[in-house]
């Protein structure tokens, strides 16, 4: 999704902005641009396409020596990817340049109003309205102009703004879209995300809702919506820029797949207490509150939602209360039945996914207790939920998530066991056994990652498939959803996940000679039924890869290929099963020569509804 950077300091801003924008490429984008403060006012360079295209344009026009500027990568929402729709948007007067992440919902209304005041618009974006609106509100005081314009804006926005009258300053404002401020030596930064500026500074803070920041090379002033100065605690980022580099791997995705054992260990370790206890570190939600919860709703988007679907099966069984998983984009508009005895769990890697954030707010407004599972520290969802459980996966750059998924899964499992311990719905022996199994997951994942050749071989057999079907029952179906998403999002092969029992109600008509079916057969209670489903698709000509438990001696006799999951408890199985499926998607996409880390049309952090 759109990425913002801004710099005020003593370095030449053009190469710095281009480099910082490259670090935001992972978010997904289709055009890019920069606005520079020059001796002749604000200069804009922007283009449809990649940063490399922008770099070419900038190089052709020569270095201008500017040390103040803002930059942007755009992921099109309103208006096609084009030069004119790219950011920054410079007001026709040449006084105000703006980069924007988010959506201005009432932009048509504002546009019509500004046209009546003599303003003209060149493109179709909602963002162009912001530069012209601030220009309209401007009469010499930039802070006043930004605040006055903000009163008219409906929607979500992170904004980077420069005024030609204030060549040594950049301005930033945010609501419902992320924006951080980086503090350097005689230089300061704004950015959508930490990797953009990590090469220059590790001291950052996140702007809170509706805060406005004024940056000069020597100072950062933050004002709340009442115009009062606000002090932020500066966070020192421990991970260095290497954590956000490929480290010798061809893609971030495979690097992040390989990092899973470590990420899972780091996520589990801080929660394990002496004597088989689980330490959640909650301050607002007490043990008593957790005992009194009558139902749980898990809400999230994309892969995080798929974690919720796995967790739904486990938590329901362990807690003996209704547990549902719902897409955050649906949750909010579906009149969720929740009250103060409902626990809403929001799962999000970025902590900034707008649908998930809005679902969280809806849950809070209806009185639910809220816990989030988040990877990015101090992100909006982490800040706004009553309690947060952090996954310690480290920065995840590849759009297709892997290590965030795996860490979310073990963390929600630990949380479920803790609740079951408190509520007495799980025996101490069973909870001790489950905790032991969870502790063994990193080793199990490492074991699978040591032998990628089998998966590479299977990918080489099937990378030309037109369509792939993933089948499973119960937890295996939940895992199929994620496996199918992984494959389709990075390889562009059509793929569907189907509950195996539902197959004969429609999808089976799509099975023909050599259609690839991946059958997940790790859920022991329904193995016999899965074997029947495999026979059904085999009878229609399908080729079947079955994912099976180590001790399964039946399924191999009906499937064309098998992938064995090392022996483990049912709680560890999902964490292990997903790994070969991530690898399969990766190697297929690699053989097809796809842009694996930045699949077309996708964004890492989806900050629009
Ligand atoms: C995007 C990403 C997915 C991710 C989803 C939710 O679609 O491409 O990988 O699962 O957003 O993101 P979140 O940051 O909330 O986990």
What distinguishing features does this structure have?
alpha/beta; 22% strand; six-stranded antiparallel beta sheet; Rossmann fold; 609 residues; Glutamine Phosphoribosylpyrophosphate, subunit 1, domain 1; 18 helices; binds 6-O-phosphono-alpha-D-glucopyranose; eight-stranded antiparallel beta sheet
Task: Walk me through the structure.
The protein is an alpha/beta fold and 609 residues long. It has 3 domains: 236 residues, Glutamine Phosphoribosylpyrophosphate, subunit 1, domain 1 (4-Layer Sandwich), CATH 3.60.20.10; 188 residues, Rossmann fold (3-Layer(aba) Sandwich), CATH 3.40.50; 140 residues, 3-Layer(aba) Sandwich (Rossmann fold). The chain is built from 18 helices and 24 strands. It has an 8-stranded antiparallel beta sheet with strand order 3-2-4-1-10-9-11-14, with helices on one face. A hairpin with a 4-residue loop joins β9 and β10. α3 crosses α4. The structure holds 6-O-phosphono-alpha-D-glucopyranose. The site of 6-O-phosphono-alpha-D-glucopyranose has 15 residues, from α9.
Report how far the terminal alpha carbons are from each other.
12 Å
Distinct ligands: 6-O-phosphono-alpha-D-glucopyranose
- Indicate the radius of gyration in whole angstroms: 25 Å
- Strand order, largest beta sheet: 3-2-4-1-10-9-11-14
| Mean of all residue-level pLDDT scores | 93
User: Domains counted in the coordinates: how many?
Assistant: 3
């Amino acid at each position: 999704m759109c990425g913002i950077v801004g710099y005020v300091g003593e370095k030449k801003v053009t190469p710095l902005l281009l480099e910082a924008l490259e670090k935001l490429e992972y978010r997904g984008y289709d055009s890019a641009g920069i606005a520079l403060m020059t001796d002749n006012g604000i200069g804009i360079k922007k283009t449809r396409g990649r940063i490399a295209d922008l770099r070419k344009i900038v190089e052709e026009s020569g270095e201008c020596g500017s040390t103040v500027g803002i930059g942007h990568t755009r992921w099109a929402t309103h208006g096609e990817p084009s030069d004119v729709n790219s950011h920054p948007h410079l007001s026709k007067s040449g006084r105000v340049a703006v980069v924007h992440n988010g959506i201005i919902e009432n932009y048509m209304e504002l546009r019509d109003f500004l046209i009546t005041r003599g303003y003209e618009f060149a493109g179709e974006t909602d963002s162009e309205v912001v530069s012209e609106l601030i220009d309209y509100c401007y009469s010499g005081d930039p802070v006043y102009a930004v605040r006055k314009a903000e009163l008219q804006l409906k929607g979500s926005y992170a904004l980077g703004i420069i005024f030609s009258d204030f060549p040594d300053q950049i301005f930033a404002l945010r609501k419902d879209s992320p924006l951080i401020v980086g503090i350097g030596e005689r230089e300061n930064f704004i950015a959508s995300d930490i990797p953009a500026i990590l090469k220059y500074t590790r001291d950052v803070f996140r702007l809170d809702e509706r805060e406005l920041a004024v940056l000069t090379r020597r100072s950062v002033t933050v004002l709340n919506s009442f115009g009062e100065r606000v002090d932020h605690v500066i966070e020192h980022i421990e991970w260095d820029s290497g954590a956000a580099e490929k480290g010798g791997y061809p893609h971030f995705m495979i690097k992040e797949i390989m990092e899973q054992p470590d990420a899972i260990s780091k996520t589990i370790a801080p929660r394990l207490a002496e004597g088989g206890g689980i330490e959640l570190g909650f301050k607002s939600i007490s043990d008593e509150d957790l005992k009194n919860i009558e139902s749980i709703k898990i809400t999230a988007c994309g892969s995080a939602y798929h974690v919720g679907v796995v967790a739904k099966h486990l938590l329901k069984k362990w807690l003996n209360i209704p547990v549902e998983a719902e897409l955050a984009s649906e949750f909010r508009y579906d009149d969720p039945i929740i009250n103060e005895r409902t626990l809403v769990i929001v799962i999000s890697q970025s902590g900034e996914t707008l649908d998930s954030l809005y679902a969280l707010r809806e849950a809070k407004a209806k009185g639910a207790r809220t816990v989030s599972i988040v990877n990015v520290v101090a992100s909006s969802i982490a800040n706004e939920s009553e309690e947060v459980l952090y996954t310690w996966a480290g920065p995840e750059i590849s759009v297709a998530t892997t290590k965030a998924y795996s860490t979310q899964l073990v963390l929600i499992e630990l949380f479920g066991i803790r609740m079951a311990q408190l509520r007495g719905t799980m025996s101490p022996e069973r909870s001790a056994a489950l905790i032991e199994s969870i502790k063994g997951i990193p080793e199990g994942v490492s074991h699978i990652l040591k032998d990628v050749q089998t998966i590479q071989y299977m990918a080489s057999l099937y990378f030309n498939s037109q369509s792939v079907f993933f089948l499973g029952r119960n937890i295996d179906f939940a895992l199929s959803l994620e496996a199918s998403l992984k494959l389709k999002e990075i390889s562009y092969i059509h793929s569907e996940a189907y509950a195996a029992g539902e197959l004969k109600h429609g999808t089976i008509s799509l099975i023909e000679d050599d259609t690839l079916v991946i059958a997940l057969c790790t859920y022991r209670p329904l193995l016999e039924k899965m074997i029947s489903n495999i026979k059904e698709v085999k009878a229609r000509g399908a080729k079947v890869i079955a994912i099976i438990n180590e001790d399964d001696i039946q399924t191999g006799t009906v499937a064309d290929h098998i992938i064995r999951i090392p022996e483990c408890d049912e709680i560890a199985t999902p964490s292990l099963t997903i790994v070969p499926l991530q690898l399969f998607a990766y190697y297929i996409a690699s053989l097809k020569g796809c842009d694996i880390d930045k699949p077309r049309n996708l964004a890492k952090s989806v900050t629009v509804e």
